[in-house]
């Protein structure tokens, strides 16, 4: 069916790359700004350029105060919304082999900031719409591309948009993974605090320092120790015998003990090796008046990625286990202790319920605890909408289509009915948010084709 679609996309592949070059050239990091351009001039210019491409192709466009723009394929209320974004994460030139804002094609890949996240996929949708329009393929219901301007800094663009317009009854974002992400776990970032007695001049733990952001497993954790025998500390690190942890002990006026592990995203703590929990397990065994550090180590023993010791472990079949990762810890010289945990929980739980349990268990250990909760996101995998997306994916790729549950949140987390549908294919790595971000030209072509077939399937029912 629709063989002419792929021919059209093939004939316009060079043009698509040229347009992507135009969009990638904008250093469109969203920066909250007073005035006409709420996220800065660069994102606004990128939105203008995108809407101009659609207008040139004869499509109806609308600018929602530079929070977002829309592109409609036909008249009438849209049955399907597709939600992409034009802002990007910063790209300091360090570490890039090509200039980040000059799209560079080599070895069949297009390199540049925003290539995969999310300018390339957003353009793939626009080209899918153009193909349908220019070939005159029948469409019963309208489809609307919504191009947002601040996904990377928290999505206030969609709050604004929804004050003006409701989302269409079917909604997907090309800003996640294939086949379909229909489950995004809830989040329960939690913060612990306690006060330690000031250390005496002779002995004690002077400071602890680990982690900088709550959603990253710390690769390094350091403690400054006063009055301990180096040999004794060294022996404790040996006794601990923690796989994947390297210890560095430096002698000076005080001892400095550093644990070196491996970083990972906070939603997948089992992929890293948490230097902080390793360090705490050794500090817990040191003599001295630092009970709150021992308490933290009891709640988050090294290797416990699922909140077992903290009393919040749970799982369900559709979303898998809760994950918990203690990612930040600061003990200052005045004895104040602050720590933070990233936690992602299954759809069968609620933020309030888990927060209450965690607080009780932390307080029983003498730690104050507060949590911020974001409820999980879930769209029925048996719905006609999701089943249609999976079928189109299977037909167009020959790969098996099944729903995915993730610990992270996508652009549609706070929507009623949205799912993520591409652009990342299983097992591929595109350096998203990192230097040398790229989209394979084959992925760009496949995305345009899959999105065109998805629009035709969903808007003709
Ligand atoms: Zn994105």
Describe it.
Strands 10, 11, 12, 14, 15, 16, 20, 21 and 22 form a nine-stranded antiparallel β-sheet that branches. Strands 1-2-6-3-7-25 form a six-stranded mixed β-sheet, with helices on both faces. Strands 4-5-27 form a three-stranded antiparallel β-sheet. The chain is built from eleven helices and 27 strands. The mean pLDDT is 95. Helix content is 30%, strand content 26%. Helix 2 packs antiparallel against helix 4 and helix 10 (384-397) crosses helix 11 (441-458). The chain is α+β, with helices and mostly antiparallel strands. The protein has two domains: 3-185 and 377-458, Aminopeptidase, CATH 3.40.630; 186-371, 2-Layer Sandwich (Alpha-Beta Plaits). The structure holds zinc ion (ZN). Zinc ion (ZN) is lined by residues 85, 117-118, 151, 175.
Beta fraction: 25-35%
Rg (CA only): 25 Å
Q: What is the C-level CATH assignment of the largest domain?
A: Alpha Beta
The pLDDT mean sits at: 95
CATH superfamily of the largest domain: Zn peptidases
Question: Quick summary of this structure?
Answer:
The chain is built from eleven helices and 27 strands.
How would the blueprint of this fold be written?
Elements: H1 3-11, H2 13-24, H3 41-56, E1 60-64, E2 68-72, E3 78-85, E4 104-106, E5 109-111, H4 119-135, E6 142-148, H5 156-164, E7 170-173, E8 176-177, E9 180-184, E10 186-187, E11 190-195, E12 204-210, E13 216-217, E14 220-226, H6 230-240, E15 246-251, E16 255-260, E17 264-265, H7 275-283, H8 291-299, E18 315-316, E19 320-321, E20 323-331, E21 336-345, H9 351-364, E22 368-371, E23 377-378, H10 384-397, E24 403-406, E25 418-420, E26 423-424, E27 438-440, H11 441-458
Bound molecules: zinc ion.
